[in-house]
TrEMBL record:
Coiled-coil annotated residue ranges, if any: none
All copies of domain MTTase N-terminal, residue ranges: 14-131
Record localization: Cytoplasm
Organismal lineage: Bacteria, Bacillati, Actinomycetota, Actinomycetes, Kitasatosporales
Binding site for [4Fe-4S] cluster 2: 168, 172, 175
Cofactor note: Binds 2 [4Fe-4S] clusters. One cluster is coordinated with 3 cysteines and an exchangeable S-adenosyl-L-methionine.
Protein name (Swiss-Prot/TrEMBL): tRNA-2-methylthio-N(6)-dimethylallyladenosine synthase
Keywords: 4Fe-4S, Cytoplasm, Iron, Iron-sulfur, Metal-binding, S-adenosyl-L-methionine, Transferase, tRNA processing
Family recorded in the similarity comment: Belongs to the methylthiotransferase family. MiaB subfamily.
Length: 502
């Protein structure tokens, strides 16, 4: 800290709330923002409260509704800010990086605007805004320090994100993220594994390796097989039950990664690989460096090596210039690939991207009609694929907050190894999030599976112990067991409006 910076004393006993929009990268950044604020003496406001002393918006810039959501919420906070002069509002993330000056023009009651490269500065900026009584804008144009070096308050005791890289070297014409997050920068493998081992020592049993283009890991350090080596190294970490990763790019998906997935027992039989379009001409316009045959070839290889793998994807409908024939090619790939799940998006024009200036922008009604056809097809396929799970015995990691109706139905919820959501009958034994239940699937719906019989086996885990310790610390009670969980677990797949749209 320079001599001109204010001393960080104001955080003591002040409450904070963070509101996150976007993908897993944003969610993980919010965990770091929480860690930074608590390290500076702030305390987390109760869930759902409107009375936090500091409200931080961690924003996304991929889709148009992110802008609308932010400015709508900022407007709703303006009266609270007027009533409570000591209240502070900060805006960070991708939208802040892009619209640094616009935010204060539209919402002059905001105190701090910070970018994707300098999230570690938030406590200092809040204090400077308080002392100087004026808004602070600080946007770094390049990464100041790898975010994983910052304090982190993880949202889950048993599952965690681990960043392998930041930034992206792709130039997709619909995406503004590389301009906001910068070029790819990889972490050293030893640093990643040290973080994984430390998390497992704390009780974490599932980790998700995270990157804007996760399987391009190694390009910055000169090792094209670095990602497959990293997966295999995670397999040697004792106590690590499950390893996932998101999101890969088909261009960089190599055979050594498929072999590592198949041969490493704790790497889960699940793959999320964005398609975006099944049309070669649209993929070319998107500047996606693969074609339909390449994409379907990867899926064929993955299924040959891992027969029970569940594959999910992202698809954009209505990209500029997309013809009916182009759209039919997307439907063809969906039929051939038989995705377990697809995150479908209507193309959203984003200022600053090449696609926004392209000819052939598709009328809204045409996009909507195609979108509905795609969703209907995928819903049918998801249901058919889920029905194939009926009669199988699956190991489910008990989750927090996955089943909104669990209390009323006397069920628990969790994720199978292939990431399918499973609701199952609550056993008589005490169960904690992070514990592992073996159940027999009796029913399938398009978006979940149901196990209505008794639990075949329940394995209490170190992850469940970690959840119990953390809950006891937060509530000040002893021996807390599972009621209705309320704290969120890292989402296993990209959020529907996030920058994981690759």
């Amino acid at each position: 800290m320079s001599s001109s910076e204010p001393a960080l004393t104001v955080g003591a006993n002040r409450s904070y709330a963070i509101r996150t929009y976007g993908c897993q990268m944003n969610v993980h950044d919010s965990e770091r923002l929480s860690g930074l604020l608590e390290d500076a003496g702030y305390v987390r406001a109760p869930e759902g409260t409107e009375e936090a002393d500091v409200v931080v918006f961690n924003t996304c810039a991929v889709r148009e509704n992110a802008d609308n959501k932010l400015y709508g919420n900022l407007g709703r906070l303006a009266p609270a800010k007027t009533r409570r002069p000591g209240m502070q509002i900060a805006v960070g993330g991708c939208l802040a990086q892009k619209d640094r000056d616009t935010i204060l023009r539209k919402a002059p009651w905001v105190d701090v605007v910070f970018g994707t490269h300098n999230i570690g500065r938030l406590p200092v900026l809040l204090e400077r805004a308080r002392v100087q009584e004026e808004a602070q804008i600080e946007i770094a144009e390049s990464l100041e320090a790898f975010p994983s070096t910052l304090p982190t308050r993880r949202e889950s005791a048993y599952a965690a994100w681990v960043s392998v890289s930041v930034g992206c070297n792709n130039t997709c014409t619909f995406c503004i993220v590389p301009a906001l997050r910068g070029k790819e920068k990889d972490r050293r493998p030893g640093d990643i594994l040290a973080e994984v081992e430390a998390l497992v020592a704390e009780g974490v049993s599932e980790i998700t390796l995270l990157g804007q283009n996760v399987n391009a890991y190694g390009s910055d350090i000169g090792d094209r097989q670095a990602f497959s080596k990293l997966l295999r190294a995670c397999g040697a970490v004792e106590g690590l039950e499950r390893v996932r990763f998101t999101s890969p790019h088909p261009r960089d998906f190599t055979d050594d990664v498929i072999a590592a997935m198949a041969e490493t027992p704790n790497v889960m039989p699940q793959l999320h690989m964005p398609l975006q379009s099944g049309s070669d001409s649209v993929l070319r316009a998107m500047r996606r460096s693969y074609r339909q045959d390449r994409y379907l070839g990867i899926i064929e290889k993955v299924r040959a090596a891992i027969p029970h793998a569940a594959i999910s994807t992202d698809i954009i409908v209505g990209f500029p210039g997309e013809t009916e024939e182009d759209f039919e090619q997307t439907l063809h790939v969906v039929r051939e690939a038989r995705f377990a799940q697809a995150f479908t998006f209507q193309y959203s024009k984003r200022p600053g991207t090449p696609a926004a200036e392209m000819d052939g922008q598709i009328p809204k009604e045409t996009v909507q009609q195609r979108y509905e056809r795609l969703v209907a097809l995928q819903e049918e396929i998801s249901w058919e694929e889920n029905r194939k799970q009926v009669g199988r015995t699956l190991e489910v990691m008990v989750a927090e907050g996955e089943g909104r109706k669990d209390d009323a139905t006397h069920r628990l919820s969790g994720r199978a190894q292939d990431n399918r959501l499973v609701h199952f009958t609550k056993p008589d034994e005490d169960v904690r999030p992070g514990d592992l239940a073996t159940v027999d699937i009796t029913y399938a719906a398009p978006h979940h599976l149901l196990a209505e019989g008794p639990t075949t086996r329940l394995r209490r885990t170190r992850a469940g112990d970690a959840w119990e310790r953390r809950t006891a610390q937060e509530t000040g009670t002893q021996g807390v067991m599972l009621g209705l969980p309320a704290v969120g677990v890292p989402a296993p797949l990209p959020a529907a409006d996030g920058c994981a749209v690759r």
